[in-house]
Records
---
Amino acid sequence: MHIVQAAAFPFPSMQGSQVYVHGIARALVSLGHRVTVVCYGHSQGEVSPGVEVVRVPLLQSYDRLRAGPDWIKPVLDIGLAVRLSQLRPDVVHVHNYEAPMAEMIAQIWRRVPVIYSAHNLMSDELEMYFQAPLSRFIARFAGRVLDRIIPRMADAAVAIRPETVSDLQRLGCANVHCVMPGVDPSEFTGVSAAILPPGPWVVYAGNPDAYQEL
């Protein structure tokens, strides 16, 4: 099959969603599929062999890697929709919330089955990017609206943890599958043991941004 991974972010990059999408792409290529990642124009790192990349044109001086809204992203997402509309894959796998909206625009020109991966619920996350009470209130409301609209647009949804399945079903997704992210041990090279004082210890392998709700 020709499978498109629609990702409204810089790719590749050593961040959660990017690492997740890169892993899926590598696994699908190893199974014999043609995989195209459609993403923003800037990146940090190398793309794995066999993974095709179609990028939105670079905007001068824009190189933001961190997640969260800004005034440039809507322009990039329109470019993402244009790039997606130019492809004729067997299936499109959309991630987060901007990519599904870009794919919705692309569906005007061609009809392709869509799989949605739920990385988060926007009603939980969006307000974390703002400080002022009014801004947080508006973001919380907008997040709830997006939660009601975006996930159910897809033909099927993928939850990355069991607890999210019921959340997606509650939001109107009838076809939900729990597929937790895998780990390829061959990716871990040059690892040495750390000598630590007596524990217990908790290891957190993510970033400490507010939206993680540590």
---
Amino acid sequence: IARDEKADLRVRQTALWAMGRTGRHAAAGVLVGFTDAKEDLRRIALAALTELTGLAYADSARWKAWWGRNKDLTHEKWLEFRLAYQGS
């Protein structure tokens, strides 16, 4: 839904927001893809990534570098990362 350019902007924003709350590793990859989108989607993607990871990078390059380091995490390692963030 977030990638559907014909969908209403608010619907796309809500899809991005929801991805940030799923806790899923795959959601991070999708959200990173929106860090260089138009401002209305970019802003929501950045907030969703912060919610998902606990990191507050403001630019696409830092998020892409982060994803490059973390995209191949196993399910267990991702859960460890999430638990460390939630426990802090």
